[in-house]
Amino acid sequence: PIINTHTHLVSTFSTYQNKYRNGTLYTIHDFVREMYRNCNVRAIMDVWCEAPVLMAWRELADSALTAEDWEQKWGGIDYWFVMGEHDAKSYNDAVEASILEAMAHPQCVGWGEMGLDYHYDNSPWTIQQEVFIRQLNHAVRLGKPLTIHTRKAEADMERILMEHIPANHKIHIHCFTDSPEFAQQLLHHFHNLYIGITG
Hints:
Blueprint: E1 2-7, H1 9-19, H2 28-35, E2 41-48, H3 56-62, H4 67-72, E3 78-83, H5 93-103, E4 108-117, H6 125-142, E5 146-151, H7 154-164, E6 170-173, H8 180-189, E7 192-195
Parallel strand pairs: 1-2, 2-3, 3-4, 4-5, 5-6, 6-7
């Protein structure tokens, strides 16, 4: 079975609705059941990283609390989510409070996506680093696994992770596009680190 470890259901469903105005999938549950039909997908990990935090997360998470929910609403697929903030310049105390609230939900299994992106450069590097460290510290304190976004920030990413994350913490680096050498360094140091490679 397949576990989709990185999907953005709300934005993907919104794109579907905008592209297919006469589409027959009216809810996110309809969309998931149809898109994953006969695909051998056992579970999906929904990633929430918008600021301000979209409050639709609670409705989706609450709709996946029981095995009956998974079967009837999700087509037999387990639904889990992670939450963090990727847009550092938009991070503030209110966003952080919303993320911390989500961390207490039983379907929330991690903090992310968050990280450093020096390619798109949407926020100053110093702000990206400050916000990243702030989120890492909360995640470690809560014992939450990490979903990390990193692009063209190898030195700063390695330094920050080494300084703030225990070597046995669970880490998923998604959509990895940096060097093989950097990947090897991370895998060597962090014993529970997994790297997602996409096309």
